[in-house]
Design a protein that fits this description.
heterodimer, A: about 425 residues, alpha/beta, Immunoglobulin-like, six-stranded mixed β-sheet, 9 helices, B: about 170 residues, mainly alpha, globular
Chain lengths: ~425, ~170
C-alpha cells in the first residue's frame, strides 16, 4: 500500500507558490505570512506516513432472498490507531438498486472507537451476486496524502425468482407409485370410494358396505381409489428471449416455473427440470424441500446462451424424463427448435402442456405505443395465434399467458380430455 | 454544514482585501473570486476553488500595494488560514457527497482546524522578533535578493517533498 499526493495537496502547492511569487513581486511581508499555513500543511509530506491501523467487518442480513426483497449491509470499522479521515465505498453489485441509506461513508475515528454505516440493497431480478468488496481511502490529518486499500470478504447472495401461489394446476394424466394428492384409477387403500364387490376372506370388517349388504342379502365391501403422486418435469426454453431485464420472457418463464415447482412439490409430486437452450441443464425429479433448493439453484443459472446447434432431447438422461410424467414446457415459442422438441416429446407419448409466455405483450410493454408499433404487434399476435392453433391441432395442450395478468387464470383455462387408462396402477 | 463553513472562509477572503483597500478594482476582483468560490462550493469542483484562492491572493496583494499600510501579521495569518481552510473544507464537502457522514467527523475536523490555527499563529508571532532582528541586520539593497532566494528555496523544498518517492 503506497501513500500518494492528493489533488488537494497539488492545489495547496499551487496556491502556496503563487503566494510566495506575489510576496517577492510585491515586496510585502504579509504575503509570506499568508503562505505560511499552506507551507506548514505541505510540510506534513516530509513526515513519515503513518498508515492507520483498523479492523473492518462486513455483514449481510440474509444471503437468500426473493426478487424485490432487500438485504441490509452493515460495514463496521474499529480503529486501533487514530484515523483522521476515512472514506469507505462498497460498489453496488450488477443489476441492483440502493433501497435506502448510502453505500459510501466518511468517518474520523479515535483509537478504540468503532463506527458503522448501513444501507439496503435490492435486486429486481434473480441471480447470484457477491457482496463484500469495500474500498477504503484514508487521508492524513491535512488531507495532502492518501492511501487506498481494498477489503474483500465476499458473501454470496442468491436472489430467487418470485413465487406466486397457484391453486389451479395442470392435472397429470398418469400417477406414480408413491402417496400423493391425486385420486388414482387404481383401487386400494384410500379415501375416495370406487366400486363395491362381494366380501372375500381377508377383507376388513370396516370395509363392509352395510347398506349394499342389507339390500343384496350378502356381504359387500367398498373398494377405494388410491391417492398417488405424479412426476412433473418443467421444461424451460432458454433458446431466445425478448424484453428488458428483469422482465424478459425468460425471467417471466423462470418465475412461472418456480411457482409451478413450488405448487407441485406442495402436492407431494416429484418435480424435475430441464433447461433447454444453448446449454442443456437438468435436475432429476424429486420431492421435498431440498428438491426445491435444487430447482431454484438451477433456475438462478438459467440464461440464454446463443447457439446454432439444435439440441436433441436424447441428450437428456431417461431418469430426468421418466415415463408417464407430465411435462410442462414453459416457452415464449420464439425459436422453432423448441417447437420441434415439444412435438418430439408429444410424439414420444409424454403428457405435455405448453405454457406460452406471450412475447407480444412483453414487447408491447417495452414500446412507446405508436400506431405502427400497435399494428406490428397485432400482426405478430395473429401470426402467433395461427402457430398455436397448429400446435393444438397436433393434440398439444397449449396455454397462452399474458405476463401482465396473473398466472393462475391462464392455468385455470386449461381443458384437457383424460385419455382412456388401459392399465391403471 | 461543511459547505457553509467553506462559504464563510470565502467570505473572509473577500472581506479582508476590501477592508485593507476599499477600492472598486479590489472589490471587483474579490467578487470574481467569490463567484468562482461559489461555483466550486456548489458543484464541489476543485479547480474553481483553487482559481478563487489564487484570485483572492492577487486581490490581497493588490490591496496591500494600493493601501501601502503597515504590516499586519495577524491579518495576514488569518488570511492564509482562511485560504487553507477554504481548500480543505471544499475537499471535505467533496468527500461527503452522497456519503453517510459520521457524527464525529465535523467535531474532529473543527478541533483539528482550531489546533492548527493556534499553532500557526503561535509560530508566526514567535518568528516575528527573529525576522525583525534579521531585517535590521540586513543591508537594504540585499533584502529583495534574500527574499527571492528564500522564496525560491521554499518552492524548491516543497517541490522536492511533493515529487519524492513515497513509501
Amino acid at each position: 500500500m503506497t501513500a500518494h499526493l492528493t489533488p488537494l495537496g497539488l492545489s495547496l502547492l499551487t496556491v502556496a507558490v503563487w503566494a510566495l511569487s506575489l510576496a517577492v513581486l510585491s515586496a510585502r511581508a504579509e504575503l509570506f505570512v499568508a503562505a505560511l499555513p499552506l507551507v506548514l500543511a505541505l510540510a506534513a509530506l516530509a513526515l513519515r506516513p503513518s498508515i492507520p491501523d483498523y479492523a473492518l467487518t462486513h455483514e449481510v442480513s440474509s444471503d437468500r432472498v426473493f426478487e424485490g426483497d432487500t438485504v441490509t449491509v452493515t460495514v463496521s470499522v474499529t480503529a486501533r490507531s487514530a484515523v483522521p479521515l476515512m472514506e469507505l465505498l462498497e460498489p453496488l453489485p450488477y443489476a441492483s438498486d440502493l433501497a435506502s441509506g448510502r453505500n459510501r461513508a466518511v468517518m474520523a475515528l479515535r483509537p478504540g472507537q468503532t463506527a458503522s454505516f448501513r444501507y439496503e440493497v435490492r435486486w429486481p431480478g434473480r441471480g447470484v451476486h457477491d457482496l463484500g468488496t469495500v474500498v477504503v481511502r484514508g487521508r492524513d490529518r491535512w488531507g495532502v496524502r492518501a492511501w487506498e486499500r481494498r477489503h474483500v470478504d465476499l458473501t454470496r447472495v442468491r436472489v430467487y425468482p418470485r413465487i406466486v401461489p397457484l391453486r389451479s394446476l395442470p392435472r397429470p394424466f398418469h400417477t406414480q407409485t408413491s402417496v400423493g394428492d391425486y385420486t388414482s384409477p387404481a383401487l386400494g387403500e384410500g379415501i375416495e370410494p370406487g366400486d363395491i364387490r362381494q366380501f372375500t376372506p381377508g377383507d376388513r370388517i370396516r370395509q363392509v358396505n352395510w347398506r349394499a349388504s342389507l339390500r343384496l342379502g350378502s356381504l359387500y365391501v367398498t373398494q377405494r381409489h388410491r391417492e398417488r403422486n405424479a412426476d412433473v418435469v418443467l421444461m424451460l426454453d432458454t433458446l431466445a428471449q425478448v424484453g428488458v431485464a428483469p422482465e424478459t420472457t425468460l425471467d417471466l418463464g423462470v418465475r412461472a416455473a418456480a411457482s409451478l415447482a413450488t405448487a407441485y412439490l406442495a402436492r407431494k409430486d416429484r418435480v424435475g427440470l430441464i433447461i433447454y437452450g444453448g446449454v442443456i441443464d437438468w435436475v432429476k425429479p424429486g420431492s421435498g424441500r431440498a428438491q426445491y433448493e435444487r430447482l431454484a439453484g438451477a433456475l438462478l443459472r438459467a440464461d440464454v446462451v446463443f447457439t446454432y446447434v439444435a439440441k436433441d432431447l436424447a441428450l437428456v438422461p431417461p431418469r430426468v424424463l421418466p415415463p408417464r410424467a407430465l411435462v410442462i414446457a414453459v416457452t415464449p415459442l420464439l425459436d422453432q427448435r423448441f417447437t420441434k422438441a415439444a412435438l418430439d416429446l408429444a410424439a414420444r407419448g409424454f403428457d405435455l402442456v405448453v405454457l406460452v409466455v406471450s412475447p407480444v405483450d412483453v414487447t408491447r410493454a417495452m414500446l412507446a405505443g405508436s400506431p405502427t408499433d400497435d399494428v406490428a404487434c397485432r400482426l405478430w399476435a395473429l401470426e402467433r395465434r395461427t402457430r398455436l392453433d397448429g400446435l393444438r391441432r397436433h393434440g398439444l395442450a397449449v396455454l397462452e399467458w399474458n405476463p401482465a395478468e396473473p398466472l393462475e387464470p391462464a392455468l385455470a383455462g386449461l381443458e384437457r380430455r383424460r385419455p382412456r387408462l388401459a392399465a391403471a396402477r | 454544514m461543511i459547505r457553509l463553513s467553506a462559504a464563510a472562509f470565502a467570505s473572509v477572503l473577500f472581506v479582508v482585501p476590501v477592508l485593507t483597500a476599499a477600492v472598486p478594482a479590489v472589490t471587483a476582483v474579490g467578487l470574481i473570486g467569490l463567484a468562482l468560490a461559489a461555483v466550486g462550493i456548489a458543484t464541489r469542483w476543485r479547480w474553481p476553488v483553487t482559481a478563487a484562492a489564487c484570485l483572492f491572493l492577487t486581490d490581497y496583494a493588490a490591496a496591500l500595494w494600493l493601501a501601502d499600510a503597515s504590516v499586519s501579521v495577524a491579518g495576514a495569518a488569518g488570511f492564509g488560514l482562511s485560504l487553507l481552510l477554504l481548500l480543505q473544507s471544499t475537499e471535505l464537502a467533496r468527500c461527503a457527497q452522497h456519503a453517510t457522514v459520521d457524527a464525529g467527523l465535523a467535531r474532529s475536523q473543527i478541533i483539528h482546524w482550531l489546533g492548527f490555527a493556534a499553532a500557526t499563529l503561535a509560530a508566526t508571532f514567535s518568528a516575528m522578533p527573529l525576522a525583525t532582528a534579521l531585517a535590521a541586520l540586513m543591508p537594504f539593497a540585499a533584502a529583495p535578493v534574500v527574499a527571492a532566494a528564500g522564496a525560491l528555496g521554499a518552492v524548491l523544498a516543497l517541490a522536492a517533498t511533493v515529487i519524492r518517492p513515497r513509501r
